[in-house]
Amino acid sequence: MTWKTVEYAGWGRFYRAKGELARPERASTLDQLVRETPCPAIGRRRSYADGCLNTDGRAIDTARLDRILSLDEEEGILEVEAGCQLGEIVRLIGPKGWLPMVLPGTGFATVGGAIGMDVHGKNHHHAGSFGQHVEAMTLHLPEGRRKVTPADKLFGATVGGMGQTGPIGTARLRMQRTKGPVMMVTERRVPNLDTYLELFDNSEATYTVGWIDATATGASLGRGILEEGETGAGLVPPAKRGRRIPIDAPHFALSGPIVRGFNATYFRRIPERGRTVVKPLEDFFFPLDKIHEWNRLYGKRGFHQFQCVVPLSAREVLRDMLKAVGESGLASPLAVLKRMGPGRGGMMSFPTDGYTLAIDFPARDEAPAMIRRLIAMAVEAGGRVYLAKDAFAQPEQVDAMYPERETWAGICNNLDPDGAYATDLVRRLNLRNL
């Protein structure tokens, strides 16, 4: 197998690495690679920071291990290779009346990555996390392939385990039936944070998500647009055409005045009375995927995303976070609020019952201090940050956020005593230290 030295980055383009990558096309080649050179597996590098990087080391790129192997249309069980993109599953299997139980905000995420980061979606309050719907998976280890099911303690270390138990080759996923090939989406303006949280708490919709105007202050703090969605029957409207960002945007493109003006316009695009629209599945689940390489909008320096979840009782913490961000002038147009339920699939999984807030920040000099302040607020409130997107958490904060870390680290270290699967994220946060 050929190893190629490349420079690569996470989706935020701030953390970068140089190392050797191999791209196997067959499971047998993956077997050979893991026997000869145990190393972490990475997919489409949709983790925002350094979770998919291995500086000066080797990594296995699973992009070519992307086959759909079988679909039991009676039971809704899908078997796929780990490099299969979730968007391809929606495109190919959605018309057959089946969808993955959980879909994150991008269809470019792979099944292996969705397991490794135990991703969540717009229906977490009902369906839990991605890993909770994995019936089995196959790990490719130096001693051979190992089938892992939820009855195996290794399952809990793999789901949400950031690839530290070895490369995933295949997975069996439990799917859900849809009511039809389209999404029926109700959109409404929300005037402030208190109203938002009440609407989330009382919504009976299967899918809910809120865009937040992170520049708003005062009485409008936390205003935004709430979307509630259900699958439905009807003619599939044409999907919006994909556009590509051809160049890195200049520094001033996301300056404070421009972002505030954009957010105000975007907020008012929804009529005061609200509206219901019909969307293709992909347009609802993966709204930014139609803008290819949208991360270039943040310029050459890239961007960071802060995402936390805080307990339901920590409403005032959310208010303090949004106030700090609004007064800083650092926010971008991308900020999302969701209601989460208690479900999670693994020891190091991010989801937990509460409200989750995600905000993008252009990688300016002032951003790290702002994000560290937000992380500290989340930790103090009994919440946690999403390690798939984290750039600035400190090692001493991790155990407070992830109380099963030591147990998880023990399993990983027993399986991989030499730390061959460690990534830049794992080293930065000392995640496997005991």
TrEMBL record:
Keywords: FAD, Flavoprotein. Residues 14-178 form the FAD-binding PCMH-type domain. SUPFAM superfamilies: FAD-binding/transporter-associated domain-like. InterPro entries: FAD-bd_PCMH, FAD-bd_PCMH-like_sf, FAD-bd_PCMH_sub2, FAD_lactone_oxidase-like, Oxid_FAD_bind_N. This is Decaprenylphospho-beta-D-ribofuranose 2-oxidase. GO terms for molecular function: FAD binding; oxidoreductase activity, acting on the CH-OH group of donors, oxygen as acceptor. It comes from Tropicimonas sediminicola.
